[in-house]
């Protein structure tokens, strides 16, 4: 049972993804590195690893267990200059390119037989203050653990990113970047000041470009496209610059949100058997959570200092799990009020844990179990809680069978809204600015022989929940690009008539296409859900 709770918690909390002047700068790439490192040899790379190299298997298996690629070679890079060179060689040779930062992509965009050149950013993990741009620089290969630790220990600041510390910044940031502090501070992209990205022009020439929110014209559109346009669409981001809009002065400790001194992390389970969980109690549990989110997701509401995620799972696992985190002076009361509201008419949970932690301890102790199993994921946003028929559909699927090979089959409801919803839908490429919950559907298993069976199990659940809107979310709600689902671009599975890009980008897709045409006209950087020029 503890192992199942750990996997459920990882499913609930993992947030994924793939990978200051006015205008863009064509760089001598090494010129924008850490001030103390200019002119120094890059810390790692370039290293070319082919299938006969002892390092190859490790490098092609950094992603999720289900997907293992077979590229002609992996290029491990340590600087922007090396990325430019690697991309240029791949374009010259006609090889299809993919990039890996953290390795958490939930689909086969990076690890696939069609990928011939894999560019691995393992050598680019620096996080530092850049006085030239008066912003914090994060290299594209850094993971959230490195970002959190260095920002906090150096300056006492943080970003509102995900709870899984091993997620890579590259894919997470470009897809929007959502985490436990987002209801208070917005998305990561709401603090994105600039990017350094390696692009390929119409003549096939690779170069590094810097674009910021102070840029104009096509360069500003390149920056905008990276504020939620998803990883792997326009080029390879080698560096992000982060600074909260509207801040004044040059003191680094004032440029990003202050990290809380401490948080209260909480979790508890609502067992099927122990609570004699029938359909009425099950529906009440989900309704209680949804109603709490409806009452506590307005921008500035006190409840936005609490993040909560209710994950309901198959009856065979006997686990329904609530996890969350609260910060601020009213943290204890917020947790107590939420758990009281959640349990009304349901019963008393078990395995209740409430633990006050120093903030950095909490940030670095998030789940890292998301790569243990083969999996399939789907997503949705909610502007209001599910209706009765949708909850009934979930109940039927989670209680229908006792298949022992399906380790986890679950639906998770994470709180959303707050500060996120103060930004106009067109101000960033992430257009989901009116949701109160994010939903994650997931199935996990071990045996490759049953991949199709459990893909289909999850497809049936998703289709049943969204039966009234054609088997996919209402396009006014949409889905989260950092939980990519290739099925939405497959007419065999998406028969709704709603284009996949409408679900992920709402009205922002045409603008993303124009940026794609300008900055990647040869469509070098693409995947199943790739933005098309």
Automatic annotation (TrEMBL):
Alphabetized UniProt keyword annotations: FAD, Flavoprotein, Oxidoreductase
Annotated region (Disordered), positions in chain: 23-48
Domain of life per record: Bacteria
Occurrences of domain FAD-binding PCMH-type (ranges): 67-247
InterPro entries the UniProt entry points to: BBE, FAD-bd_PCMH, FAD-bd_PCMH-like_sf, FAD-bd_PCMH_sub2, FAD-linked_Oxidoreductase, Oxid_FAD_bind_N
GO molecular function: FAD binding; oxidoreductase activity
Co-factor requirement: FAD
PANTHER family xrefs: BINDING OXIDOREDUCTASE, PUTATIVE (AFU_ORTHOLOGUE AFUA_1G17690)-RELATED, FAD-BINDING PCMH-TYPE DOMAIN-CONTAINING PROTEIN
Family label: Belongs to the oxygen-dependent FAD-linked oxidoreductase family.
Protein name in UniProt: FAD-linked oxidase
């Amino acid at each position: 049972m503890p192992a199942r709770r750990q996997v459920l918690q990882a499913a609930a909390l993992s947030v994924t993804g793939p990978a200051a002047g006015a205008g863009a700068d064509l760089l001598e790439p090494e010129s924008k590195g850490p001030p103390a490192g200019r002119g120094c040899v890059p810390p790692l790379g370039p290293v070319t690893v082919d299938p006969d190299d002892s390092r190859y298997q490790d490098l092609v298996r950094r992603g999720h267990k289900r997907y293992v690629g077979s590229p002609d070679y992996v290029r491990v890079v340590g600087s922007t200059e090396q990325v430019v060179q690697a991309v240029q060689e791949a374009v010259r040779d006609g090889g299809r390119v993919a990039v890996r930062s953290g390795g958490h992509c939930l689909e086969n965009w990076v690890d696939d037989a069609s990928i011939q050149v894999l560019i691995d950013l393992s050598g680019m993990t620096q996080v530092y203050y850049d006085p030239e741009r008066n912003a914090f620089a994060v290299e594209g290969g850094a993971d959230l653990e490195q970002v959190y630790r260095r920002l906090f220990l150096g300056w006492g600041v943080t970003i509102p990113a995900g709870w899984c510390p091993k997620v890579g910044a590259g894919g997470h940031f470009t897809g929007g970047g959502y985490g436990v502090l987002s209801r208070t501070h917005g998305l990561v992209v709401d603090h994105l000041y600039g990017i350094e990205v390696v692009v390929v022009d119409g003549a096939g020439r690779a170069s590094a470009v810097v674009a910021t929110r102070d840029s104009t014209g096509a360069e500003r559109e390149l920056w905008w496209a990276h504020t939620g346009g998803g990883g792997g669409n326009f080029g390879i981001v080698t560096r992000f610059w982060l600074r909260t809009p509207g801040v004044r002065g040059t003191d680094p400790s004032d440029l990003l949100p202050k990290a809380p001194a401490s948080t209260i992390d909480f979790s508890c389970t609502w067992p099927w058997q122990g609570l004699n969980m029938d359909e009425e109690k099950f529906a009440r549990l989900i309704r209680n959570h949804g109603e709490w989110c409806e009452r506590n997701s307005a921008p500035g509401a006190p409840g936005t200092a609490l993040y909560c995620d209710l994950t309901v799972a198959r009856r065979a696992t006997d686990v329904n799990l609530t996890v969350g985190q609260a910060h601020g002076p009213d943290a204890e009361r917020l947790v107590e009020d939420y758990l009281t509201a959640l349990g009304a008419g349901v019963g008393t949970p078990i395995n209740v844990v409430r633990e006050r932690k120093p903030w950095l301890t909490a940030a670095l102790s998030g789940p890292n179990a998301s790569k243990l199993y083969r999996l399939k994921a789907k997503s949705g946003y909610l502007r209001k809680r599910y209706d009765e028929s949708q909850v009934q559909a979930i109940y039927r699927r989670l209680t229908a069978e006792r298949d022992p090979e399906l380790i986890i089959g679950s639906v998770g409801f994470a709180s959303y809204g707050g500060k996120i919803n103060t930004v106009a839908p067109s101000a960033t490429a992430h257009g989901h600015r009116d949701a109160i919950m994010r939903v994650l559907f997931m199935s996990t298993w071990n045996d490759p022989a049953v991949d199709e069976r459990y893909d289909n199990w999850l497809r049936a659940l998703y289709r049943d929940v969204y039966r009234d809107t054609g088997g996919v979310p209402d396009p006014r709600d949409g889905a989260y690009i950092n939980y990519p689902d290739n099925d939405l671009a497959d007419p065999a599975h998406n028969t709704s008539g709603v284009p996949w890009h409408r679900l992920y980008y709402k009205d922002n897709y045409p603008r993303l296409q124009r940026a794609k045409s300008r900055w990647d006209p040869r469509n070098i950087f693409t995947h199943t859900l790739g933005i098309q020029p």
